[in-house]
Specification:
369 residues; TIM Barrel; Lyase, Ornithine Decarboxylase, Chain A, domain 1; 2 domains; 8-stranded mixed β-sheet; 8-stranded parallel β-barrel; 11 helices; 31% helix; 25% strand; elongated; binds pyridoxal-5'-phosphate
Length: 369
Amino acid sequence: MFRLTFDQARRLKAQYGTPLVAVSQREMADKFSILAEYLPGVKMYYAVKANADPQVLGVVRRHTPYFDICSPAEILAVKELGARPEDLIHTNPIKKPEDIRFAVEQGVRWFVFDNEFELDKFLPYGRDLNLLLRLSFPNTDCVVNLSYKYGVPAEQAPALVRRATEMGLTVRGLAFHVGSQSLNPYKYTDAIHECRRVFNLLASEGIYLDHLDIGGGFPVEYVESIMPLRSFFAPIQEALDTYFPTATVMAEPGRFVVGDAANLVLSVVGKSRRNTVWWYYVDDGVYGCFSGRIYDHCDYPIITDRQGEREQCIIAGPTCDSFDVIYHNSVMPPLEVDDTLIVYSMGAYTTASASHFNGYPPARIVLVD
Ligand SMILES: Cc1ncc(COP(=O)(O)O)c(C=O)c1O
């Protein structure tokens, strides 16, 4: 986990102002080394949605050629960096026909689907495209359940693959996402095992799949600590070795690559004592980087270097909306106006979903070593 010191944070603040997000290139490099060590041979498609900042994508590009994209803008963003279209996978299960056309014109050849109505949209391209069928594996041991909206239960998979094959389309494999910030590796191993069953059943009918996409979801540290990464990845790798020794295995990490590689540097812009409780107003809020509080259900550690007795307080963002409260029930030592605060693990699903509401632009992103 990357942690700025307060000296570093104040230097960045003096240079760029706040709010700013400092992204550690070294931490991102370490994340790719960990993935290469613990999941050797798995092709890592960075999930652009987690953080699509061009500088961040540039760092990712130094470590993997592969990207998981979902929209025309994401395709253009990674092509701008020199990513090759054959190294992209379009993972949005539901797409506008014109978005598929755009992707195909851009050279994208790998797509994900999860229902028969989507298959019609691929007909104009026939066997040119490689399709992966997304399965659902509901998971309560994760922070964001991604099987609520997408994916079919494994038992429906063979019929859908058969249907696609009858339509003259090419299904190359299965994909799943066990949920973001997934804390339990055995959700992956169960899913991998289930996918093997589907592969085997289809093979017995002469339909041979050769790709498995295990999605993203690998966890990072926020307020709560997570299990040691070696212990997290070991059972997943073991299941892949056991059930998919020869298939091409892909993954789509987003949060794991950039989540705890970034720190947000904030300033206290005002304070007020209201109904005996301290309110501290800071220069980023739920319409900015802390949008992750809403959409990503995350608790981020906010750090001060002030000493003193910690007291219950409310930390609010800069916009005029009463909804713009980051923490209704925090504890801090007494803070002063212009104090610098650091927030860890602010790299994924933060700036990505920040808005310009009330005229406040999203925090600037600055790469650091
Ligand atoms: C299809 C797909 N792949 C990959 C990701 C990235 O997941 P994570 O950031 O948990 O690694 C997501 C996240 O929403 C997703 O929907």
